[in-house]
Amino acid sequence: MKATATAPANIAFIKYWGKKDEKLRLPETGSISMSLDKCLTTTTVEFADSHKADSFVLDREIVVGKEAARVFKQLDRLRSLAGSTSKAKVVSQNNFPKGTGIASSASGFAALTVATASALGLVLSEKELSIYARLGSGSACRSIPEGIVEWLEGDSNETSYAHSLYPVDYWNLRDVLAIVSSSEKKVGSSRGHTLGKKSIFHEARVKAVYKLILQIKEAIKDKDIHKMGEILEADCIYMHAVMMSSTPALFYWNAGTMNVIHKTIELRGQGIPVYFTIDAGPNVHLITEEKYVEQVSTAISKIQGVQSTIINKPAKGARITENHLF
Ligand code: PMV
After folding, report:
1. Is the dihedral of CA 181, 187, 193, 199 positive or negative?
2. pLDDT tens readout for residues 275-302
3. At 103, is the pLDDT very low, low, confident or very high (cuts 50, 70, 90)?
4. CB 29 near ligand 1, within 6 Å
5. Coil, strand, or helix at residue 104?
6. How far is residue 98's CA from residue 307's CA, in Å, rounded to a whole number?
7. Which of 16, 35, 98, 141 to mutate to test the pocket of ligand 1 (most atoms within 8 A of CB)?
8. Nearest atom in ligand 1 to 140's CA
9. How far apart are CA 10 and CA 3, in angstroms?
């Protein structure tokens, strides 16, 4: 059986950084994100007796080693649920550069989970798909539902999953993504989550996040861009303070990142409601409303170090498509 799924990346407004259970990928706090309609992964999975071993092709290149093993482990989880022993061919295509802080593991594991479940004939609820996606890569659980999404931290495998707070058309939010680098990051987030625990700021951030989640949910309910922006920018800075004070220290920003941050603050001084947030990479996501997109992207495109911009709207969740990659 063959199936194909497409899933969006997501940008966290309140971040997931630190695990309380490594194996189950239970986060130390909940998190809130928006799914991104222009940053997509499409994955085709085929189970057949003619496949003698699992194989994985990403962006037209055969993947081996640890990265492939993580994908095959995800196949195993769903195979064991379906009682199958068939081997699979997995082909995956991103429409954005990999390893740049656009969460390719999130869209990747969400698409992989949905396509694999379908190829195995499993009928899973959105909650179940989110749980399985989380086991593959934490933030992938937030790429299953649509729009603005909350990951409930939970305290067991069954209670840690993401659900949609608001659908795609709830609010004309935009993410103007400034690409300042498209090269691979050196330390991936899986390892970063663990290194961060040694930061003296880690515990303080975890404590703060509980309050930030309540506050940002209020701001989203009120469609208050200023309040929401201040909160998401604060948590981005808190998370990067944890990263920079890890052992060894993790510096994900580059000069272009700083230039975009300064410009964002300048634009705000001119009355434009725009706020920055950055994941585990140098690229900067500028959160604003539709009516300011033109001004923001024009100003940002002129900055030294900015290679391109991608303008994202809130996206639909992970879904099956008929456009197979092979
Ligand atoms: O799911 P992971 O292990 O790739 O972690 C994602 C971490 C951040 O992108 C930095 C934050 C987040 O919540 O997406």
Report:
1. negative
2. 999 999 999 999 999 999 999 999 999 9
3. low
4. no
5. helix
6. 15
7. 16
8. 1
9. 23
Per-residue confidence band for 94, with pLDDT thresholds at 50, 70 and 90: very high
Chain-centre distance for alpha carbon 282: 14
Task: Tell me how far the alpha carbon of residue 237 lies from the centroid of ligand 1, in angstroms.
Answer: 14
Q: Which pTM does this prediction carry?
A: 0.96
Q: Are strands 19-21 and 31-47 parallel, antiparallel or unpaired?
A: unpaired
Query: What is the CA(136)–ligand 1 centre distance, in A?
Result: 12
Condensed to tens digits (0 to 9), the pLDDT of residues 126-181 reads: 999 999 999 999 999 999 999 999 999 999 999 999 999 999 999 999 999 999 98
Q: How far is the CA of 106 from the centre of ligand 1 (A)?
A: 8
* Cβ atoms 58, 173 nearer than 8 A: no
The type of residue at 84 is S
Strand residues in the chain grouped as ranges (E): 2-14, 19-21, 26-27, 31-47, 55-58, 61-62, 88-94, 148-152, 161-166, 173-179, 275-277, 284-289, 308-312, 319-321
Ligand 1 centre distance from Cα of residue 236 (Å): 12
